[in-house]
Design goal:
Elements lengths: L1 H22 L20 E21 L4 E24 L2 E16 L2 E8 L4 E26 L2 E24 L5 E10 L2 E13 L10 E11 L1 E4 L6 E5 L1
Antiparallel strand pairs: 1-2, 1-11, 2-3, 3-5, 4-5, 5-6, 6-7, 6-8, 8-9, 10-11
Length: 244
Amino acid sequence: MPRFALAAAVILALSGTAAMAADLPVSVAAGPPPPWPRTWDWNGFYGGINAGFSFGRARDTWNIPTLSVTGEDAEKFSGPLGGNQAGWNWQYSVFLVGFEADIDFGAEKAKQATFNSAFTTTPVQGTVSVTHSGTINWFGTVRGRFGVALGPALFYGTGGLAWAAGKEHVAGTATNAGDGSTAVLIQPSSLNPIMLGWTAGGGSRWLSAIIGPSGPNICLLIWARQGGALLRKQPLLASYQAAH
């Protein structure tokens, strides 16, 4: 009997321990916290670099008072450009206003063009021929913009002031229709026009958590119109006005 009673007591004790362990709460490893809701903020300063391709047309106005000659011709420009831009945004709900300035170095070139015109003076009649070719070396804008921000995407319109600086290579001759003789009218020279005008366009950006409120431009297309570069240089004996 004593042996049986001891065995029963041990069995009861073990059973009781197992029952207590089953009643304890089970420990489960904690998972990652839920993602925090993202809020996209376009406010503040931004800056960056840009690169692209430009093409356009220049209308040139000529005035040669010594021969009473006036007229126009045109040049077609094309080439790459690239530089820096910076700006500031203010966001109000989904609407955004801001300003941006950029300056670009360009390699836009035009093929050589020739302005030809007949002239009549007493007692000579003949033709004038002016060859010229241009390049645009610097291009910049200062623009405002208004857009709509849809999360990380921004769609906007932009417009403001545009300027360009370049170089125009010119040379000209006058030919006497009577005897076929030719005289130098414009010595080969280089002009350095600086043009002011306006620009307008539109584009879109994508906000990057790494880059900040600038974000890369998905697309930016702008139209620029510059003019008013009136140049007078002796001994050219002519004035030249370019409008790009």
